[in-house]
Amino acid sequence: MDADYFLTVAREAMWVLALASAPILIPALLAGLILGMVQAATSIQEQTLTFVPKLIVVGVSLVIFGGMILGLLGDFTTSIFERIPDLVK
Hints:
- There is one protein chain.
- Helix 1 runs antiparallel to helix 2.
- The radius of gyration is 19 Å and the shape is elongated.
- The chain is mainly α.
- The chain contains three helices and no strands.
- The protein has one domain (3-88).
- The longest helix has 40 residues, at 3-42.
């Protein structure tokens, strides 16, 4: 086993992590940004006001993209298990 093998697996893991988290983090970021601008424009500085809309956005994102994320993680896990025989060489 050489270091390139493990670096390839680590690179794939980071890519899968980015693809799995982006559909949830990007809408939450946009919701926070929009709510922050509304709060700044109206001078309402209540912290709990932003929590519920962000929670709803994350929930809706999970409903919409949950199947895709689960498939992505399942494919990656299957790929990792298929590589186990390569470790013996």
